[in-house]
Amino acid sequence: MTGHTFHRDREELHGITVVLAGRSGRTYVGRYHERGSRGVIMHDAAVHDPTTAELDRDAWLERMRAFGVRVSEKMLIVPDEEAGEIRKFG
Amino acid sequence: MRDEMTRMGAKELRTAAEVDATLADARGTMLVFVNSVCGCAAGNARPALAQALRHPVLPQQVLTVFAGQDLEATARARQFFPEYQPSSPSLALLRDGEVVHFIHRHQIEGRRPEAIAADLTAAFDRYCTPAVKSA
Fold it and tell me: What are the phi and psi torsion angles at B61 (to 5°)?
């Protein structure tokens, strides 16, 4: 079994909650939808901005692992020039 | 899906009143499964729960609400674990009204039912008293 959800016509990460490292230093956590012409589309996403966040990135991620993703964006497009490494959250 | 849940022994709560009657002032152990009609993660969570419920150590009650369908019941159930962000599917194991173990959607997505069931049964072993099985 792969990590695919039931949508086998989609990318393997479709429907999976991921951590996307932004080149700006921001971090995005949300359910990966697809990588399209406008960038990476995520649903139910949370964003960590190190310039304004109360917690550092690792503590923020750890809190969401324990208590779930605190959604601030129902749908988010991270532009290609911002999108760095993407990995499964968990 | 509703039949699948009741067949495995879960009690479905469809109204806020049913949730209150079951969860308010509850003692003992109970598993609350916030179900989802989405086929992706829930399609792994339900068979995982079915496997876990064959374990010899079980919570005293297994309850389910359907997110996206029984909105009032789901919202009320989530009020019993407000520190956890709402997601579905998800599972909360409570003992005497306190959450002792929580499985989020992100811990279900893309995982085999066997792995999710193993997480659940480990929590049952840790937090639940042995179930008395009738002959």
Answer: -135, 145
Which residue range(s) make up the domain with A51?
23-75
Active-site residue, selected from the candidate residues B40, B85, B98, B112: B40
> Does residue A43 lie within any of the structural domains?
yes
Residues of A in contact with B84 (CB under 8 A): 67-68
Distance from CA of A77 to the nearest CA of B (A): 20
Q: How many domains does chain A have?
A: 1
Q: Is there a domain that residue A71 lies in?
A: yes
- DSSP letter, residue A24: T
Q: What is the pLDDT of residues A1-30, one digit of tens each?
A: 444 455 566 788 999 999 999 999 999 999
- Contact residues on chain B for A6, CB-CB shorter than 8 A: 39-40, 43
Determine whether B3 is exposed, middle or buried from the number of CB atoms within 10 Å of its CB (0-12, 13-18, 19+): exposed
Q: At what angle do helices B71-78 and B16-23 cross, to 10 degrees?
A: 30
Q: Search chain A and give the residue with CA nearest B92.
A: A67
Interface touch A88/B107, C-beta < 8 Å: no
> Closest chain A residue to B104 measured between Cα atoms?
A68
Reduced to 3 states (helix: H, G, I; strand: E, B; else coil), residue A77 is strand
Is A14 domain-assigned?
Answer: no
So what's the ipTM on this one?
0.83
| Within a domain: A89 | no
Nearest-Cα distance to chain B for A18, in Å, is 9
Q: How does pLDDT run across B1-56, given as a tens digit for each residue?
A: 778 888 888 999 999 999 999 999 889 999 999 998 766 677 789 999 999 999 99
